Amino acid sequence: MEYDPLRRGVAELIGTFTLIFAGMGSIVFASSGIIGVALAHGLAIAIMVSAVGHISGGHFNPAITLGFLVTRRIAPALAGVYWAAQLAGGILGALALRATFPSEADLDRGVPVLNSTIGWGSGVALEAIMTFLLVWVVFATAVDPGGTFKSIAGLAIGLTITIDVLAAGALTGAAMNPARSLGPELVFNIWDDFTVYLVGPGIGAVAAALLYNWLYLRPGEAVPVVGTAESGVLEPRPGDAATD
């Protein structure tokens, strides 16, 4: 299988850039409150998954890529390309806001940090739960060949991000995505609670990917794993011959 890492990596970079630019921008510029912030994050992902999902699979999130890696649905080398592209997109999105907005102090508000009312453990748990829901929906809509709504997976994924932000955005910032946190953290040198946004999404993504894969994609028998050159997603498809 030819992975075409450059083409896919650029798609991942642009998608992640869009998430950071729109998501951080909604926090800094918008006055519509949590609803506007939730919609900005959700719509950014919905649009970019719909736009370039056929090229890279539309991960835009190292946690999602980790879920694909642990279920052997992406090659390790390609996963490394995705992680590098996603982090680069996060950094470039934050840099673009920094270059175009005069007050860096206001931009600091776009860096995810914990609310003072919760501790590290609660923050990790919330990020893990939100990421679990996100990765579960990704697998159910974009990966599962029997998924009812696969053709509109971007909408379902974007709406999941929207409800997650509405549920806990005021508590953790609802990053669900190490690139969403690391990019702005690196640009603005703000490292408050940064481990929350690595540990929580990682736990949630691995749990959701392994559970969905075990329950619905490989139910008690070996399932052929084949690659699609367009999506970057390794998935079983009916009619393909079994391979070792």
How does this model look, in words?
With 244 residues, the chain is an all-alpha fold. It has one domain (5-216): Glycerol uptake facilitator protein, CATH 1.20.1080. 67% of the residues lie in helices and 2% in strands. It contains 9 helices and 2 strands. The chain has a two-stranded antiparallel ribbon. α4 (76-100) crosses α8 and α6 (120-143) packs parallel to α9. It is globular. Residues 220-232 and 235-244 have low confidence and may be disordered.
Topology:
Elements: H1 5-29, H2 33-56, H3 62-70, H4 76-100, H5 104-107, H6 120-143, H7 153-172, H8 178-188, H9 196-217, E1 226-227, E2 234-235
Antiparallel strand pairs: 1-2
Question: What is this structure, in a nutshell?
Answer:
The protein has 244 residues and is mainly α. It has helices spanning 5-29, 33-56, 62-70, 76-100, 104-107, 120-143, 153-172, 178-188, 196-217; strands at residues 226-227, 234-235.
